[in-house]
Automatic annotation (TrEMBL):
Boundaries of every DNA repair metallo-beta-lactamase domain copy: 327-433
Keyword tRNA-binding: no
Organism (species): Coptis chinensis
Annotated protein name in UniProt: DNA repair metallo-beta-lactamase domain-containing protein
Domain of life per record: Eukaryota
Region feature Disordered, mapped onto this chain: 1-25
Molecular function via GO: 5'-3' DNA exonuclease activity; damaged DNA binding
Location of this chain's protein in the cell: Nucleus
Entry's Gene Ontology cellular component terms: nucleus
UniProt record similarity statement: Belongs to the DNA repair metallo-beta-lactamase (DRMBL) family.
GO biological process terms held by the UniProt record: double-strand break repair via nonhomologous end joining; interstrand cross-link repair
PANTHER family for the chain: DNA CROSS-LINK REPAIR PROTEIN PSO2/SNM1-RELATED, DNA CROSS-LINK REPAIR PROTEIN SNM1
InterPro entries reported for this sequence: DRMBL (IPR011084), RibonucZ/Hydroxyglut_hydro (IPR036866)
Keyword line: DNA damage, DNA repair, Nucleus
Amino acid sequence: MENFREDELLLDNNNMNDSVSENLDENGFPSLDSAKSFSSDFYSSGTNWSCLVTENAESSEEKKKKNKKMKQTDLFQMWGFKKPDTSSASTSKKIQMKTDVGFPSQQRRVCPFYKKIPGTSFTVDAFRFGLIEGCSAYFLSHFHYDHYGGLSKGWSHGSIYCTPLTARLLRMCLSVNPTFIYPLELDVEHNIEGVKVTMLEANHCPGAALTHFRLIDGRCYLHTGDFRASKLMQSHPLLASHRVNLLYLDTTYCNPKYRFPSKQDVLHFVVKIARQTLKKQPKTLIIVGAYSIGKECVYLAISDALGVKIHTNASRRRVLQSFGWPELSGKLCSHGKDTPLHILPLSSLRHETLKKYLDTFAYEYTTLLAFRPTGWTYSETLGNQLDLIRPTSKGNITIYGVPYSEHSSFFELREFVQFLKPDKIIPTVNVGNAANRDKMQSYFREWMKS
Ligand SMILES: [Zn+2]
């Protein structure tokens, strides 16, 4: 299901190994085996859109196509949004022919409308659909699997636009052919097929961007990708002074039950716990769980506060080095014995696994303190009160789940929407269920009224 998010997936249950996608290694990066299987598994990977696109058993391919289109039109109508005119008939025809030659159409998935930018031939985070009819530019918001899924070494369906950091990761981790990659510097207006495109910092993982489109007729569309809305974002000239007509919104936490503290508050809490623990037991090994990219600030905060280096395995070090952040690169070290701060895959954050890990450093450390940062570590009663967080302890192993989120809370979403006052909002997450969609639309209506 597209509603799959890496952090949701990982924290829905405690059995981390069961949750990691088969295409990714324990660090959340594409595994070598999966790189090979990407092409064979191209059209069956990832999302099940069946709830948005009705499959039918009719044998005629034309009827099938027609019905899928009708279903999408219904959604456009339901959400009060007209279907975009994606391209001229001749372009469609040309691309359709190529599609028919290259791939058996019964294996194709239809790109849902909310991944298409109306009035353009652009899509955002729509790689898993292969060649999309009429699409001339494929935008990638950030390097998380649920957004780049479908991209591989063999990608040849069109130009990929993303930030320079994401571009580096595409080349390094997926071996995507560089001739297809067009890095777009943040905060610079780029002209792509007559559309003015600007990437803005998304306050999500490294390289993540909001994409702002200004069409020839002056209409402005903002696609948030995954983001955590902030006050700083509101001061960006593009958002402060231009009306956004259409907002594609990361609705991961679009439910009032999701109240969590600011990132800064969580970092203070983590540092406080680390210091308290070390005061009691100086021979403590500190572990931060991490999956894929993102949440780097958690271990950077501990590293800064304690004045220690950061140890992690070679594959993660390589990825972290590629960010080009001197303050991070300079702190990485390859030997676990050289620092009491280690990064491990989230799948390792279990008492038994951590106990074995601690045993390998028995000469240096006697206890272990681990942090599992995620937006999903929340409880209705906890709210913003971090001091109410209770760790799980077993022997000399203590694990804290901390609500460090790189997505907007419900109230941050509301504030962002009320600031932007867009004409229309299209949710991009948790949309596979009609009740969810209705609920979100009712929140949006409420927010726009006030
Ligand atoms: Zn993400």
